């Protein structure tokens, strides 16, 4: 079952085409550049699926893109593990992610998602929406200067 999931994941990478924002170089007018430091492994299939779908959601977004840390505006620290990877019926993805500004290292917020198998993709999509919301409510005084 795990091998089938990983095979399907790899196949979707080959078939799918991203139409999201494009970041090149250190300046990204109108686009929020995100870098990720992550600890998520394929041996935890649900957490890995969350991580993969989150990255895919960012890639397809018109407002965000993934870049290397030196070029990012926002850094995400992501840690994920499965609660019971040997029992897919009872397994949950437990994913913790924290956001901070790369330029001034101001901490924004930390979230924890615990998602059952049928809702992992939805949880990953809601994570980007939660980050977007926090970026809108953070006072400008805390945001890094360009």
Question: Nearest-angstrom radius of gyration?
Answer: 16 Å
Average pLDDT taken over every residue: 84
- Strand tally is 5
Q: What is the number of domains?
A: 1
Main sheet makeup: 5 strands, mixed
Uncertain stretches of 5 or more adjacent residues: 1-20
What is the general shape? elongated
What proportion strand? 25-35%
Order of helices and strands: HEHEEEEH
Helix content: 25-40%
**CATH topology (fold) name:** Double Stranded RNA Binding Domain
Category by helix and strand content: alpha/beta
Would you kindly provide a written description of the structure presented here, covering whatever features stand out?
The chain has a five-stranded mixed sheet, with helices on one face. Helix 2 crosses helix 3. The chain has three helices and five strands; from the N terminus they run αβαββββα. 25% of the residues are buried. It has 146 residues and is of the alpha/beta class. 33% of the residues lie in helices and 27% in strands. It has one domain: Double Stranded RNA Binding Domain (2-Layer Sandwich), CATH 3.30.160. A hairpin with a 5-residue loop joins strand 4 and strand 5.
């Amino acid at each position: 079952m795990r091998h089938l999931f990983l095979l399907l994941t790899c196949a979707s990478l080959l078939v799918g085409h991203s139409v999201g924002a494009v970041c090149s170089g250190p300046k990204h007018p109108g686009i929020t550049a995100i870098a990720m430091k992550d600890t998520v492994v394929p041996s935890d299939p649900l957490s890995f699926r969350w991580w993969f779908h989150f990255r895919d959601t960012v890639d397809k977004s018109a407002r965000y893109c993934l870049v290397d840390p030196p070029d990012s505006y926002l850094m995400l620290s992501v840690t994920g593990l499965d609660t019971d990877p040997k029992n897919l019926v009872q397994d949950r993805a437990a994913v913790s992610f924290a956001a901070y500004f790369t330029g001034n290292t101001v901490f924004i917020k930390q979230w924890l998602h615990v998602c059952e198998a049928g809702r992992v993709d939805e949880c990953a999509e809601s994570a980007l929406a939660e980050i977007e919301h926090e970026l809108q409510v953070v006072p400008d005084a805390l945001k890094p200067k360009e």
